[in-house]
Amino acid sequence: MAVVSNPEADLRLGMLNSLLTCPHRKLGLVHPLHADLVKADPRFYVRLAAWYADHGDVRDHKEMFIVTLVTSDFPGHRDTGLAMLRELPPYQLGRVIDFIHGRKERVKVEVEAPQEGVPAAAMTHKVERRVGKGKKPGKPKLAAGGTVTLTDEFGLFKNVPRSLKTEVTRYLREREADDKWFDATALQARKALKRLYALLHVKPGPRAQAVLFDEVPPEGSKLAGLKALAQADDADLQAKLIAEHDVPFRVAIGLVKAVTPAVLKALVARMSPQEVINNLDMLRKRGAFDAPDLKALVESKLEAAKTATRVSAFKAETARDAAALPAEVKATLDAVADSQVKARGRIARPTALLIDKSGSMSQAIEIGKRLGSLLAAVADKELFVYAFDSIAYPVEAAGPDLAAWEKALTGITAGGNTSVGVGVDQLRRKKQYVEQIVVVTDEGENAEPKFVAALQKYRTEMKADPQVCFVKVTGACTQLEDECKKAGIVTDAYQFSGDYYALPNLVPLLARPSKLELLQEILEYPLPQRRAA
């Protein structure tokens, strides 16, 4: 296969790869990446933003796409960003506005001694008073340690564009026009709503004024029910009020006086599937699995989690491993994780998965195993899996789901030299035909057989031309990519160095026949349109 040099495609593929890296919940660290992306290819960036809003998983990237678009001067960017903004929940909209406007916070840090570079005025020393027995306290003595007060700056510190203020005003008026919608929004995002009105100087409507600022909610509203819930002392009455006024779990849990069976049932009924997963250990300790009706309610929420759009496969796995849950609940969590991963896409070609377990992978072996089990779970055709150092170790799963592959990969530890080609050699010796080879590696190779030579031999004997994809973990080099390029072998490479929550982003990228096809899909992706006032 000849090397095709296409700088524009390479640039866009690099933009895709960058989305696999994300410092979780730190917008300030994500912004420089997006600033570079929009500058490099503004036409592709806006399509990528629209595509990611529907198919991406990391909220920080979704928010930063909007921040970048609504502050961009490139034609069409601002309107697309404003259209996407209307779909955000209030707390995310608040984060977008806060980041553009900028915010300063005073942070106090305890130190044992004055710090170099910190102004003396920022340091407040502790006071030591030495008092002898039977004597009055002497003069205060300043200790070496104390508290340093620093100013933490967050955001761009720009004026909020007039068009953005107009769109936020429409956003708020749209909710004010529907009493139930506004009350439900105020229940869950009261602080975010108040800040939007205050920061952008939007005059609240009568209901917003009463609910958010005067704190006199209309009689019979959800907010009035919330006030009654806070004042109620009887647990049965609290359970009744939670159910009657549909008080969200996150709000109700902070107001209940005691978690009785009736209150627990009301709380579970108001939980989203993800909230049930996040709180399984608490529910177990409160006896939710001992009462048949409560257990059935929890199980129904977990069943709904299989198809829910806002459920994390990684969190389902974590909950399964962290809590002492009944076996049937763990099995359901396995099914939830498996369903959520498979919903991201399917690999429809015979595939080989090679997982680097050499000594150079000691720090990244856990990420490699997780990536391996993730990709293995979405394969529809033949899948051949090998873990390798200087020897290839065949891996066989007990079943097609994610949990089975995790179990099969348990016990793989890093060690030995690295021969990436040894896995390809095993494919050739066993006459295993594949159309795609996915290698989880850091690309360091120091033992025979070498990858390029083994691949060329495989292609000749098997009369196959498999596509090669390197999934590069933290600290990876470009050794194999460079050697493949010299040999005229086209490869794809995904750099993963983010957190586990970004892992599902790999599935749709690898499920397509090629990255060029994915690029074409993104380039043709429809842009959202701003709604009328």
Q: Superfamily at the CATH H level of the largest domain?
A: von Willebrand factor, type A domain
Radius of gyration: 28 Å
What amount of the residues lies in strands?
Answer: 5-15%
Termini Cα gap: 54 Å
Q: Name the average pLDDT.
A: 85
Number of helices: 26
Largest sheet: 6 strands, mixed
What would you call the structural class? alpha/beta
Low-pLDDT parts are 1-5
Proportion of residues in helical segments: 40-55%
The best one-word shape is globular
In total, the number of domains comes to 3
Number of beta-strand segments = 9
Report the CATH topology name of the largest domain.
Answer: Rossmann fold
Describe the structure.
- The chain is α/β, with parallel strands linked by helices and 533 residues long.
- The protein folds into three domains: 7-101 and 158-206; 222-342; 351-495, von Willebrand factor, type A domain (Rossmann fold, 3-Layer(aba) Sandwich), CATH 3.40.50.410.
- Helices cover 50% and strands 12% of the residues.
- It contains 26 helices and nine strands.
- It has a six-stranded mixed beta sheet, sandwiched between helices.
- The protein is globular and about 80 Å long.
- It starts with 6 loop residues before the first helix and ends in a 10-residue tail after the last helix.
